[in-house]
Amino acid sequence: MKWIDGIHAFPKHIKQFILFFVLALSFGYFTGFKFIVRTTNLNPSGLEENYVGNEENEEAEILKFKKAEGELITTIHTHILSFSLIFFALGFVLLSVPMSLSFKKFLLIEPFISIVVTFGGVWLLWLGYSWLKYIVMISGMLITLTFVLQVAMIIRGVASKN
Length: 162
Known about the structure:
Blueprint lengths: L11 H29 L3 H9 L16 H26 L6 H26 L5 H28 L3
Helix pairs in contact: 1-5, 2-5, 3-4, 3-5, 4-5
């Protein structure tokens, strides 16, 4: 077996290993996504409130305070490291999946750009650049889209017979 032969040529036990890894990773990823839905309502204002607080808003149902700098640094640090490792692992497997080279390059590189933009944007949002909440939302959506596409392509590759 040569790496260039592609994922379809991997032995059955390796394809099963990859499949269960991708499924477990997806479960973890979408559990985190559920947390984002819960804390931000998937809208820019909710995102801003989650990091900057809403104590000035007298109509807020739930009072949120600006995150402490240490908490923010810890959140950004752990997310950048874990997302980088997630996309490195998926990308490594994706290298063996046959697809157009330009699409593969996009799927391999884009998540790393969006990781920096998203979490750098969160830091700048916390510093008071509130317009960045829109950039953070877009780059966060790109991370999720890329994750879904990578997982779909890998599962397709594992299921492929040729």
